Amino acid sequence: KLNIDVDTAQHGVEGLTYLLIESSKLMISENDFQDSIHALGFSDELNKSLLQLYLDNRKEIRGILGELSPRLPSYHSLEWRLDVQLASRSLRQQIKPAVTMKLYLNQNEGQTAQVLQTDPATLLHLIQQLEQALGQMKTNHCRRIVRHMK
Amino acid sequence: VLDDPDLKDIDPTVLKHCHAAAATCILEAGKHQADISAISTCLEDCKLDKERIEQFCTEYQKNKDALEILLGSIGRSPVHITDVSWRLEYQIKNNQLHKTYQPSYLVTLNVEKSDSGSHPDVSFSCTMEQLQDLVGKLKDAAKSLERATQM
User: Fold this and answer.
1) What is the residue range of the signal peptide feature (chain A) (predicted)?
2) Mind listing the pLDDT tens digit of every residue in chain A (150 residues)?
């Protein structure tokens, strides 16, 4: 339908893909993009179309590229349940509270579920430690670094 | 028991029988959390003299709590969390994507090492929102626990 041979079409697509991926990866500004493609010697109209194509799809391409980076298993969700152990084979008449949890993690294109348990004291300890962790981003130290990195 | 110098004159088989009998008695008493009178009655039925019964009960009483803890810890349960460690990092770039500028947490749930093969610690990464979700859910569990203890 385009009246060109397969090879040219393929090269065209590959070139376009490369251009968009590299631009998105580096998150280059509009001006930098325009300067870069200017060297290719296309018409102004084509350059404008290419710039618009870049700006429209940049976010989505970056989202997809983000998925390709090295990853550890990542948090998906957590379910919990309160249990009280009343008796066991070795000991009768117990009152042993426990929190049983199912931790869902995303790992290598799949999802794993792991059953874990903890006691009330450790649960409170976990909450305290993780709340401290969350608070870190608000400290002056972290704020300063974030400001300087941009 | 077999190496004890005070007992070297006694037939080892008899020693083993005594040890097994004493151990069984103690464990059964512990399992059912029997009180002193029940134990005394039981030992009386076994024709032990009063002095021996008193000695046995005193020793039992001394170690009762430790025994209960030990018995309570025997048994199967899901992997038990003992501690948590975390790391906060600020991502700048990777080879696929530059200028990422995102905080990221790495959380490790330390797990109790059991004798039947230790499970590895559970590690995972999460964003700030995900960590907030996790902490929120843990706080819900803690609140429920508090309500349950007030019933």
Assistant:
1) none
2) 677 888 888 888 898 899 999 999 888 888 888 888 888 888 888 888 889 989 999 999 988 888 777 778 999 999 999 999 999 998 998 888 999 999 999 987 789 999 999 999 999 999 999 999 999 988 999 889 888 887
Rounded to whole angstroms, the maximal C-alpha distance in chain B is: 84
Co-location of B85 and B51 in the same domain: no
- The nearest CA of chain A is from the CA of B10 a distance in Å of 32
State whether B105 and B141 are in the same domain: yes
Clarify whether residues B103 and B68 are in a common domain: no
Domain that holds residue A137: 121-149
Residue to substitute from A23, A65, A75, A141, interface B, most B β-carbons within 10 A:
A75
From B126, B40, B27, select the one nearest A72 (Cα to Cα): B126
The reply to whether B7 falls in a domain is no
Joined tokens for residue A115:
């059953």
Contact A80 B95 (CB under 8 A): no
Considering only CB atoms, which chain A residues are within 8 Å of B82? 118, 122
Question: Which of B33, B54, B74 finishes a domain?
Answer: B74
Residue in A with minimal Cα distance to B105: A133
pLDDT digits (tens, 9 = 90+) for B99-142: 888 889 999 999 987 666 677 889 999 999 999 999 999 999 99
Compute the count of residue pairs across chains A and B with CB atoms less than 8 Å apart: 163
Burial (Cβ within 10 Å: 0-12, 13-18, ≥19) of residue B128: middle
ipTM: 0.76
Contacts of residue B140 in chain A, CB cutoff 8 Å? 80
In angstroms, the CA A47 to CA A81 distance is 59
B51 min Cα distance to partner chain A (Å): 29
**pTM tops 0.80, yes or no:** no
Same domain, A80 and A60: no
Domains in chain A, number = 3
**Total count of domains within chain B:** 2
- B-chain residue closest to A117, CA distance: B80
List, in order, residues 6 or more apart from B131 with CB less than 8 Å away: A75, A130, A133, A134, B105, B107
Nearest CA in chain A to B107: A130
Based on the fold, state whether residues B40 and B58 are members of the same structural domain.
yes
In a domain, residue A1? The reply is: no
